[in-house]
Write a structure and sequence with these properties.
19% of the residues lie in helices and 25% in strands. The chain is of the alpha+beta class.
Length: 73
């Protein structure tokens, strides 16, 4: 199963990462997987506050369609 984790960064953008984990994965583990992936990359520093991240399942998997509208400012 895949999860999407959106991390706000210091440049004002939001970076979204796909994390492969089981359905019962802890939200904190999903956050840290995405955060370390972001931190190892060339992008500006992301906020390391768990409360600032948005975490949701990728795909519909029986829950109906999910709106994943991307907003870029």
């Amino acid at each position: 199963m895949s999860w999407l984790v959106a991390l706000p960064a210091l440049d004002g953008r939001e970076y979204v990462y796909r994390v492969h984990a089981p359905a019962d994965a802890l939200r904190a583990d999903l956050f840290w997987a995405a955060f370390h992936c972001h931190d190892d990359g060339p992008h500006p520093r992301a906020f390391d506050r768990f409360d600032a991240a948005l975490i949701w399942r990728a795909g519909a998997e029986g829950n109906g369609p999910i709106d994943l509208t991307v907003h870029q400012y």
